[in-house]
Amino acid sequence: MVTPRIPYVLPFPPPPTHPKNATTLTAAIDAVTNFLESRNIVILTGAGVSVESGLADYRGGRGTYRLNRTYRPIFYEEFARNHEARKRRYWARSFLGWPIMEKAKPNRAHLSISMLGKLGVLNHVITQNVDSLHYACHPHLRTTELHGTLRTLTCLTCRSPYPRAEFQKALAELNPKWAEFLHTAIEAGIFDNDYRREGGIKTNPDGDVDVPGAPYTKFRYPPCPTCLNSDDIRVLVDAQGSHKPDGRLATNGVLKPSVTFFGESVAPEAKAEAEEMVDKCGGILVVGTSLATYSAYRLAKASHDAGKDVGIVNLGGVRGEDLFFSREAKGKRLRVDFGVGDVLAGVVMNLGGEVTEGVGSETPLGGGGAGLGG
């Protein structure tokens, strides 16, 4: 089997600025406000939107691929077919990282997008993020989760859904020493941002944590309860109820996060919905993403190819900028190199709204997983 390549782990070239006077935050905010005047814009978001929520991004200045050059996410075939990889490289690390994901709350960027929806400026969000913070912050604003959601798991055998929060409880019961360590680590603040950096603990945007020296080989995980209770599907478990692979039955009842892994295709429904929104809109605003994954890049390119408006708000370079800002480009163009939260909060103020930080999410979260990222 050929291992899929992780796209664009190195930084893109420095971005252009458009309009050319948008070199200060105030000018950038005004430029984005003008770009949104048509009120027929779809917003496409990536991991950079969730950085202020305490989550890592991929390709930013302190992103996973910049700080941890050896990082390689688990690929779909590894997870689906390899029991050892599944427990060592995924579920043990996800178990430790889940509290970080669960604690994360929508930040200024999410709240600003929510307000822009209420002001009638935006009517649809497409996100590459699998942290569900858009879903939590603005259920009133239609959101397409392009790479899936952390809230649930899906059985690879029977396709039944299962809440990620409930799965965390099952993992704790099967791994009491890990659960004790996790509780102690949380109480001591080991997973807080500053300590993580100083202690060499590596966290990634998809909710997994790598703790040096942890006994990953001893971790255990349960099977899908629907399959386990089915008369038609045989699932092997040990005396404690942990998944026990054996030959052809090795993959029966395997629960997988409801997200798109590397090496896996984007869900057809999400792909079709995103394409429909881009087809109907007057333009696209790319926010907090380098467009490194093709599933996101193709949406921005589709808007460009159709002669529609293309705007980008992102710190650092973005894939395809040589195309989007070429002389042949039609439609309005926008490119500002400032933080997403600062810019979007300023746009809301320009339009007569207000972003109140500290406001809780409208919808509770539950989930955890790994996806393609933005």
Automatic annotation (TrEMBL):
Molecular-function GO term, any one: NAD+ binding
Residue intervals of the Deacetylase sirtuin-type domain: 18-354
Entry annotation: catalytic residues: 147 (proton acceptor)
Keyword annotations from UniProtKB, A to Z: Metal-binding, NAD, Transferase, Zinc
A UniProt-annotated Pfam family: SIR2
The keyword Disulfide bond is assigned to this record: no
KW Hydrolase (keyword) present: no
Residues holding Zn(2+): 155, 158, 224, 227
PANTHER family linked: NAD-DEPENDENT PROTEIN DEACYLASE SIRTUIN-5, MITOCHONDRIAL-RELATED
Protein family: Belongs to the sirtuin family. Class I subfamily.
Name of the protein described by the UniProt record: Deacetylase sirtuin-type domain-containing protein
Organism this protein belongs to: Tuber aestivum
Taxonomy of the source species: Eukaryota, Fungi, Dikarya, Ascomycota, Pezizomycotina
